[in-house]
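User: Good morning. I'm curious how flavin-adenine dinucleotide would be positioned relative to this chain. Could you predict the structure with it bound?
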Amino acid sequence: SSTLVWLRDDLRLDDNPALSEAASLGQPLIVVYVLDEDSPGVRPLGGATKWWLHHSLTDLAAALEAAGSRLLLRRGPATDIIRDLALETGASTVLWNRRYGGPERRVDAGVKDWAAEHGLKAASFQANLMFEPWTVRTGAGGPYKVFTPFWRACLDGSEPRLPLDAPERLPAPSTDAGGRPPAGDALDSWRLLPRRPDWSGGLATTWQPGEAGAWQRLADFLDGPAEDYGTGRDVPGVEGTSRLSPHLRFGEISPFRIWHALRERFPHSAPADVGIFRSELGWREFCWQLLYENPQLATRNYRPEFDRFAWQAPSNAELAAWQQGRTGYPLVDAGMRQLWQTGWMHNRVRMAAASFLVKNLLADWRLGEAWFWDTLVDADAASNPANWQWVAGSGADASPYFRIFNPVTQSRKFDAGARYLREYLPELSGLDDKAIHEPWKAGGLAAGYPEPIVGLPESRARALETYQRLKDG
Ligand code: FAD
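Assistant: Good morning! Here's the predicted structure, ligand included:
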């Protein structure tokens, strides 16, 4: 008999409880990744995450081989694939690390039921969240709806467990009577990489998908921005944040590992900035808790009163201007171009760009969420809709709708020296630090930069009136 480990959003050997358990069993081991675009409700990956997945799986396959194992790739509805594979390899045990989205949980429960009916052992582990949603409850037993008490409740209990080291050797794969391991797909046959046009050049120069890249980001962060995170994180023109998000998204590094690495690096009195960074990890956990409680977070307003909100469908030209970074507002445009070029956008700019879409253009947040889903390398089933709903005012613990980011004020405040604007808007690089935030006043149009697609005062007033109508019922 053999053990089957099914990897999903946990593409790592380090702190991987399912894999460590399999190593300790010592039986022949099959490690499988399933590309599942067929199970009901499972959201297909966007373009940027497909690119990431391709490279992450390449890295993972090499790491598994170096440890004496092998990565098997199969495609299709996961329940069928895992069942067939278990039968084919005579597996006695199926192991995985838990997922928290609704459709994914249904798939996993189906596999568990099937295993129980057929006398196989199926076990799941906690690996990707430090605080699993059902363990963090209010006094009344329900989920938290506000971040601060949620995070306080998380930190009230014991410290997150210590991470497990990667197994040095893994058991060899099980083979058939002819000595062959089970057959799988070639990664290239999944066609995860863009072809014509190939837009991935900027992603490739920005990122190193896989475990080694994740550890490098963590080391760079601890040696650099961590100590000043509280202030540095708001400045898009410097590397003030960790850029760990896509690595966390694919589980190339464990949040437990990050948590304890911070502990070790700042053993005595951790600076306040470390606490702020930890609470950002807490927001990730909070978003997953929201998704766990509201599996339709990406399509339904968390606050149902927003079902009556009078979103205006943007014209194709307006939507394209936003997507392509041609709104005429430099901070928004720099952000949208950073997103297109690198698959990532600074958090402060995400907030400004999202606010511009849902407030100044009055577009339904789902349009923005879908664009981010397709273009972000960290696009995440929980954090993306939760943050969009946060900006739109329809979410949990949301920014109130009447808080409308002014892209010019934000730009002056957080990119005063215009480093960020100049990096992504080369056509404006000739304008001085003052003028560059309002290029329509200062020769920016002559340099080929677009005129603002909406006026700020009018569009702000329109948004506030629309919100007032919602409140008045
Ligand atoms: P750091 O500042 O170094 O933070 C460390 C980690 O904490 C991040 O890697 C991330 O895992 C977590 N984190 C930080 N801020 C948040 C937050 N607001 N919500 C949830 N987790 C957070 N984050 C995603 O991971 N995936 C998304 O799809 C996503 N979509 C977003 C959409 C909008 C409209 C907005 C405003 C924010 C979105 N975020 C998303 C949150 C945030 O912008 C990114 O997590 C952050 O910019 C990632 O960069 P970093 O790793 O350098 O973050």
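The radius of gyration is 24 Å. The beta strands are 2-7, 29-35, 71-75, 91-97, 121-125.
Let me know if you'd like a different ligand tried.
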